[in-house]
Amino acid sequence: MPETVPTVDPRRWKALIFIALAQLMVVLDATIVNIALPSAQKDLRITDANRQWVITAYALAFGGLLLFGGRVADLWGRKRTFITGLAGFALASALGGAAANEGVLLGARALQGVFGALLAPSALSLLAVTFTEARERAKAFGIFGAIAGGGGAVGLILGGVLTEYLNWRWTFFVNIPFAVVAATGAYLVIREPAGSRNPSRLDIPGVVLATLGLVSLVYGFTRAESDGWLAGPTLGLFAAAAVLLLSFVRVESKVKAPLLPLRVVSDRNRAGVYASLGLAVIGMFGLFLFLTYYLQIVKHYTPVETGLAFLPMVAGMITGSTQIGARLMTRIRPRLLMAPGFVVAATGMLVLTQIDLDTSYPALILPGFLLMGLGMGTAFMPAMSLATHGVEPRDAGVASAMVNTSQQVGGAIGTALLNTIAASATTAYATSHAAGARSRDLLKLQSMVHGYSTAIWWAVGILLLAGAIAFTLINTGRPGAGSPAASSADGERAAEGADEVPVPVLAH
């Protein structure tokens, strides 16, 4: 009997444009507000104690609802969920840009997080079920991985330009044209594979436990930054997160239609991707924050100059993802891209541990940025592809949500953990050098730079750990190898080459 050949969507590359545009909007929104925050705080008279909520409100809603958003995409349809997420994100952005007071701004940020939790997993799962041929999949995920890795830095650049030349409100309004173009294009171009939805009933207990557990975890790290790691509220939130997430795992192992089928995370290759990607983001998010403050406060860069300073890192990420990762992905095993990529990025961070008050940007910061960009771009590309590789089409949404969850939780952990380390090192340096200080202002800057350098050393270790996990856990063969020799050591066919995965025929 002749073998059935899957129909290839002739508009798949046009679809990629709009999927990538939506992903860029979500990723850059995580950092674009950071540079605008001082201006918004002054304009709306937000207190120092409450300013963190402009960031935290988004992170809590986004991180807490991602698994739910992924399951909705599988159940309701990825295209429909994608367009709904874009429309809601645009409305929330308009509300934030027009905010007349603190409460409206915080509500808009939370609403952005809610719709972002629908948008992000549906975008990645659409990509996963649209591109099925190994080489095309490598190219598509190369572009997507570059955006996922470099979008945060693009947000810093765009935030600086908009804040300096217009005002902070445009860091919200800029999302509207992104969303309108992406939604219009998605409606006209994107086709969803037939038979790829998961019609099972929604797992309500799983939704409640996962959402509350992730919110408790993210909020716990936020409180640790402000109250301390051993404070009662911090420990209480971590304990609650542990109980809720363990209960979630227990429920998912017993219910007929789980929110997160454990088969998605029990595969060693996908588990390796989720763990290594989460650790890598821990290091990256903290670094963005430290270097933004270092460049503006110590080096006296303007917001635009600060954003432009990150541009070589973005270029490195794009090069690493599209020229290195995408070209080599079909030739060598993913772990031989991911592990070296994380090591190269760690080397770039190692260079940046040498920053001081009079550091030269071309001599030290630029090489560090370029190495970080190349390394992270090379590692992110296969990670994005492998995270949804081998899953059943009905699980594509929730597998995609796990990628975003690991990044979002990793970002929250990284910001809190590295900030706490930097603050402790800053205080210790100031105390030990107070007696011999010639100037209080000089000592303050020296202490700040020492704190940043110490935290970056920790980030180097975290990235090396990410590389070790990727090399140890990820043992799948190169995509499209298809030979028995390429089989995984654990014998799971679903974890192997892209060409071996059953692909549904696209609807016409």
TrEMBL record:
The keyword Transmembrane helix applies. Coiled coil: none annotated. The chain crosses the membrane at residues 15-37, 52-70, 82-100, 106-129, 141-162, 168-190, 202-222, 228-251, 272-295, 307-324, 336-355, 361-384, 455-474. It is a multi-pass membrane protein. Keywords: Antibiotic resistance, Cell membrane, Membrane, Transmembrane, Transmembrane helix, Transport. Residues 15-478 form the Major facilitator superfamily (MFS) profile domain. It comes from the Bacteria. Residues 481-508 are annotated as: Disordered. It is found in: Cell membrane. This is MFS transporter. It comes from Streptomyces endophytica.
